[in-house]
Amino acid sequence: MNAKSHALRSFLLSSLFVIAACGTESNPEAEAAAHAAAVPIAEAIDRAEYQHTYDSAAPLFRESLDLAAWEARAAETRAPLGAFESRQLNTTTYVREPWGKPQTPVTVVTFDSSWENGDIYEMVTMQEQSDGQWLLVGYHVRQQ
């Protein structure tokens, strides 16, 4: 394992410890539903459908950044990757009190994704809404 891979794995492990400190628990039904909802979102981001993903995201996501910022960040992240090749589920983590605050729980869905110019970890954070839909509240990418 090279130094870059080691540093990334250390970051991801520390992120998992932070998530664990925020009230994780096993919730297979929520994790399965969040995963099912995260896949088409990731696929829409692959197709550069940034406005669609923004418009269909949870209010928490839309309140944290505007459409122009989302489009710029997503395009900046994706452009150097080249063509999409594959995506595999890595983990799902149900978090009862995300960010250390009591609120609607989230599920963090992580994928190992391969692209023409390298591999990435994708973290798609989904939040169940009052109507039972799972909507996007966060999207982060780290190079493997």
Describe the structure.
- The chain is of the alpha+beta class.
- The protein has one domain: NTF2-like, domain 1 (Nuclear Transport Factor 2, Chain: A, Roll).
- Helices cover 43% and strands 31% of the residues.
- The protein is built from five helices and five strands; from the N terminus they run αβααααββββ.
- The protein has helices spanning 3-21, 28-46, 50-55, 59-64, 67-78; strands at residues 24-25, 84-95, 106-115, 118-128, 134-143.
- Strand 4 (118-128) and strand 5 (134-143) form a beta hairpin.
- The termini are close together.
What Rg, in angstroms, do the CA atoms define?
15 Å
Number of strands: 5
Question: Can you say what the CATH homologous superfamily is?
Answer: NTF2-like, domain 1
Number of H/I helices: 5
Sheet/helix structural class: alpha+beta
**Overall number of domains:** 1
Strand portion: 25-35%
Helical residue percent band: 40-55%
Spans of at least 5 consecutive residues with low confidence: 1-21
Average pLDDT, rounded to a whole number, is 84
Observed structural traits:
alpha+beta; 5 helices; 5 strands; 144 residues; disordered N terminus; Nuclear Transport Factor 2, Chain: A; 43% helix; 31% strand; five-stranded antiparallel beta sheet
Question: What is the compact description of this entry?
Answer:
The protein has 144 residues and is α+β, with helices and mostly antiparallel strands. The chain has a single domain (3-143), classed as Roll (Nuclear Transport Factor 2, Chain: A).
